[in-house]
Amino acid sequence: MLDFKVRPVKVEDAVFINEMRRMDGVRENILGICSERATRSEDFIRGLSENDHVFVAEVEENGLRKVVGMISMTVNRNMRVRHSAGIGIMVHAGYQGKGIGTALFNQVIDLADNWLMLARLELSVFVDNDRAVKLYQALGFQIEGTKKYAAVRNGKYEDEYMMARYHIS
Ligand SMILES: CC(C)(COP(=O)(O)OP(=O)(O)OC[C@H]1O[C@@H](n2cnc3c(N)ncnc32)[C@H](O)[C@@H]1OP(=O)(O)O)[C@@H](O)C(=O)NCCC(=O)NCCS
């Protein structure tokens, strides 16, 4: 079993986040683009507000620490939709299928359900991203609808599912 730790993001993680966003096996599914610079990730981290909750998964290899996964949850700011938040996730192509995605999700779901009392978590996913859709369904997300021609991928407009998970107590 892979040993990794989940912790809040730091500015120094930007270079790893940039590498993940650009790599094959991640970029095509997260709306990344191959020319993205590390400064974009640095600006993203520095620009996070109190509505943004971002965690990374860190592994240690040969004495070096490396970030191999990230999840972000952004709580909507408008007072009447503050009970809902949007989620984005990615795991390094070389570390997928090892439980990192599940662990990152469990961290934000606990925060959402028990500490922020959010009623609704939302995300979008390409309709053919079976691994991700299965993971989200296992975590209680449902498909709410399909966005036709939602995003460009490799020369085509592709459809996305809108998925959501409800927590009403
Ligand atoms: C989707 C993603 C976040 C999942 O993270 P992960 O760390 O690979 O997921 P986990 O190892 O926790 O596995 C979770 C579930 O995914 C599915 N899964 C994992 N590896 C799989 C594989 N090789 N083949 C098929 N399904 C797989 C399984 O349902 C698994 O649950 P189970 O094995 O307990 O039944 C990750 O694969 C990823 O970043 N992919 C590229 C970017 C992306 O698609 N992001 C999401 C955009 S909406």
- Low-pLDDT stretches are none
- Which homologous superfamily in CATH is the superfamily? Gcn5-related N-acetyltransferase (GNAT)
Helix content: 25-40%
N to C succession of SSEs = EHHHEEEHEHEE
Q: What class would the helix/strand composition place it in? A: alpha+beta
- Gyration radius, to the nearest Å? 16 Å
* CATH topology-level fold name: Aminopeptidase
- Named at the architecture level, the CATH assignment is 3-Layer(aba) Sandwich
Question: Number of DSSP strands?
Answer: 7
- The percent range for strand residues is 35-45%
Keywords:
single chain; 169 residues; alpha+beta; Aminopeptidase; seven-stranded mixed sheet; 5 helices; 7 strands; 38% strand; binds coenzyme A
Write a structural description:
By secondary structure, this protein is an alpha+beta fold. Helix content is 28%, strand content 38%. Strand 3 and strand 4 form a beta hairpin. The termini are far apart. The mean pLDDT is 97. The protein binds coenzyme A. Coenzyme A binds next to helix 2, strand 4, helix 4, strand 5 and helix 5.
